[in-house]
Records
---
Amino acid sequence: MTEPADAAARRAIAPVICYPTDTLPQPDISLYQSARQTAVKTGEVIAPPREAATFRVPAGHFFRISSIDGPQVGDLNLWNAHDLSERFYSGKTRALHGTHLTTGHRMWSSFPTLRPMATVTHDTLGWYGKDEYGGSVHDVIGTRCDPYTGNLLSGSQYHHCCHSNLIRALADETGLSLAEAEPHVHDVLNVFMCTGFTRDTGQYFMKASPVRPGDHIEFFAEIDLLGALSACPGGDCSSEHSSDTAACFPLLVETFAPADGALDGWAPPPVNGYDRSHGR
Ligand SMILES: [Zn+2]
């Protein structure tokens, strides 16, 4: 294929940010952090290796995901605790904040609500930034490992991908059957996972997570949440996933309640203001 004469000029056009965020409602991080100082622990749950666990967090409370026994990545799903149809929207979160999340970024919900579900308030891996390969931590670019892609690529029948782990955990929590639970499982926040796109081919890559026991990421719940976290069969994702070969460790989820009055002036975000008439 031959290039047009002005190919270089066309490539040289500077990019424009799709969604400038100057008008995006900003979280009051200092209010959240001062409320966090007053918070007491209310519960904890462990996501065992190659399994998922669910947890509930009332609006205005915090939850923390921690690496404990060894480097491990987690796949996180969030739903409105009262309505599973409102769930985390990875693609729009990526469009608004970029490929990876850290302190101050938010996990946005699906249409038609499109509102913050959770805000990252603390990230011990915030120092990582972007590495020389373009890799970074806590991505919203991967989907979740699943048995269908494994079957497509290698004919496998593997049952402990994050997709299946999340389905079993959601079914156990809600009483839904596996078939009923499956459509509620959605693309994830890849907690602690280090990923990017290769510069030459644009392919999704992963590399060994920099997470170490003691590292954690903490969130403020903007609405009442049901969460599910899978300890990915890929472990630290240094080599492969969708099998039992990687070293795999548990993840800890803890919840915290701030003191009465610590959030004075704060209210859960309203649902999106679009009137939904869609031109009719
Ligand atoms: Zn996974």
Note: The chain has one domain: 45-257.
---
Amino acid sequence: MLASDLFALAHQAQNSGPDRCHWCGAACARVWPHDEPPGPTVFHVRRPRTSARFPGNSYICTGCWYYRRQRVTIRFLTGGWQDIQTPARHAWWITSHGAWGVRSADHAKLYELLRKPPLRFVLALRSDACARNELHLQELNDHEALRADTKLRFTIDHLVHEYTIHELESLLKTGAGASPGVNALQRYLGPPPAALTPGPQEKKERGRPPDAPDGKSTQAYLAGKINASGALAAEALVQDVQVLPSAIGGSSR
Ligand SMILES: [Zn+2]
């Protein structure tokens, strides 16, 4: 299975056919001709470089066709969409259930997803230095089960990096990168969101009742509540009595 197979699945389609895709080599039904500029002619001294896996093949697969369309609407990871977009100008999170563009606003969400990734996914990150983020140069993760030490791959500008869930958790716990892949991820995504990192441990005092919402002690809070309202809601009274019966003393009898 290839990244383009997953991209096809994300669009409820499938790569199939007797031929191989010009770009990625996936199964291809010879429906869409490839869009690569013409090859060398007698006027070319050097052959132009191509990243196509099968440069001699004339057609592309369904996944590559979806990806290489121009002016499409792209949905983003944390909601929202943009019309008239070229997919290759975006970073991507792709699973069997969908394909989403990744903006900087989505980076916090990406940390969450990478902690508990699906069995099959592609993460194709792109910086402004990369003119086209090509689908046929992406790494597919396809596992039957994931362990903390399973090597998972992603790309930044087509450069392949690896991380494990254990290494990522360690970054979230200690704030320090645990591997070159996690460091690269952090450089791209920025620091992990505070919600995923453990805060300073709260000091708990034995036997002390919890403070009231406004910061007063529970006793002062409760006294104020009873004084302020002659018609105290029965429900609130019962609740308060359960929390701290001594605070209202004989008034409940
Ligand atoms: Zn293809």
Note: The chain is about 25% helix and 20% strand.
